[in-house]
Fold this protein.
Amino acid sequence: MSLTAALAYARHGIPVLPVHAPDPRGGCTCDKGVSCERPGKHPHPRHGLHEATTDPRRIDMWWARWPEANVGLRTGVAMDVADVDSAEGWHGLCHLLGGEFPAGPRVRTGGGGWHFWFNPMGFGNRVGLLPGLDWRGVGGYVVAPPSRHASGGDYRWVHRPGEPLPDGPASLRALIEGPPPVHRHGPIAHPTRYARAALAAEADRVARAPVGTRNDTLNRAAYALGRFVGAGLLDLADTMRELEDAARFAGLGRAEIRSTIRSGLTAGRRAPFAPDPFGSGANGSGRHVA
Ligand SMILES: [Zn+2]
């Protein structure tokens, strides 16, 4: 049953969160029911991923409330996951790894995909790493066994996790690393992907900011992300929602959150991120100031 599994994951240092389950009558256990777009895959708690925990008392409370919950695991802490959802993704990963799969943990998802677990690499999520292959890292989560999939199948272990997890091969790391850090000179190959990773990482930083640094962290995050919004690489409403959620989780008050986000985003949008070969996007020169 999923509580036992959730507690076992937590004992291994993997932050857990309860995720809505597919409704046996169709759709999802959330309020949207049959019109839910991500049945059995999105978190129960209001602040989502940021609430993931290894605290057994919290996990007990959650499962007392939602005994049928699917088990969500936060990635980027104790493990990262290569998320394969098609045969194309499978072949792409296999090719990337030189024709072999790692001997590490492998999950067959109830929907016909696979999850391969690796040691955390420190990167954020990368959606569309290859066709049919996503990377779940910092700021991400996966649904884990014994959860149920909306298609009716269960998430099952093909190879159970042991110690230690395999390191991601260099070829995989190179692909994930993809766009170089902003401070390095050189073009950024995938600016949208880069911006999405920045959003996940900044929201995570805000959610975990210690008391005394929260407002400053939020302000810096809003400014940094505002530059992506200004460049058209992030959606303004999405960015605000994500930052607000993270800041509320950190414990900041609503009014303070709103004003800090607004001023940071406004300033950032005046200095749009410019992924050009000369790295001028990184130095804050603000040459695009409106
Ligand atoms: Zn739902």
